Amino acid sequence: MPLTQDACPVWPCDDPDRDAFIAQVRMQGARLYRDLPWRNLDDPYAVLVSEIMLQQTQVARVGRFWERFLARFPTLDALASAGTADVLEMWQGLGYNRRALALKKTADVCAAERGGTLPDTAEELQALPGIGPATAAGVVAFAFNRPSLYLETNVRTVFLHELYPDCEGVSDKQLVPLVADTCPPDDARAWYYALLDYGAHLKTQVANPSRRSAHYTRQSAFEGSRRQKRAELVRVVLAAPGITADELAVRLDEFERAGARDGVDAVIFDSIVADLVSEGFFRRDGDVFLP
Fold first, then answer.
1. Active site includes 51?
2. Domain at 61, CATH number
3. Catalytic residue among 51, 152, 162, 232
4. DSSP H/E element including 244
5. Which of 41, 43, 72, 179 has its Cβ near the most Cβ atoms within 10 Å?
6. Angle at which helices 226-239 and 245-258 pack, to 10 degrees?
């Protein structure tokens, strides 16, 4: 029977001990090294774009989007100068369009207040739109190669697999001091990439250890969801600027029925559209919608 959280060990552990754990991660990281396009960069903006794109999106899908996005918006100033519609257009296919809006807002703030540069501390980064603790720590570690507390799903997977193999409901409160303690002062970048490479591999070999985290939640189905309807409405308005409300409703209804789902009633349609307008995805001008 799996141990409860209270019965699980806390660092330091006897098996493996701290040094053995670090050696294991470094060995596996070297063996499983992934040659990713955003790896070993010292451009904080490029790293930030990769970290935001990788949120809830598989690495294999992110590569081409990251390269295309940076080719179009190579700097924070370039992104700040772009229109929201152009940014959303370049984001299409990645999903979670809120990430694109938050990234654009961050660029706007940095262009207006920081001379087009990102701050270099986790605290200052978290004050920007859409940047949470893990994203901020990732920028500090990967762009500035400084110690940070980077706890995301693959990192969590390694700690749970190696240190808590028989535990259920392990909290991040337990993991945080371990992550902080093992991050080296001189090469945080290489250390966290070793954790990421090893964690990604573990997910293909064993039952995902991150499911034993107290914070694990299964992602809700996308098909038929409100999130999918939102994404389709954004796509249609970007592709057909000036579309009327009635036509937009028809297009969404057709999209749902093509997926063998019921059509969308007026109340749901109006609610989703109102949310998208208020969040800045597109605007309403009389009876038409514009990017």
1. yes
2. 1.10.340.30
3. 51
4. strand 243-244
5. 179
6. 130
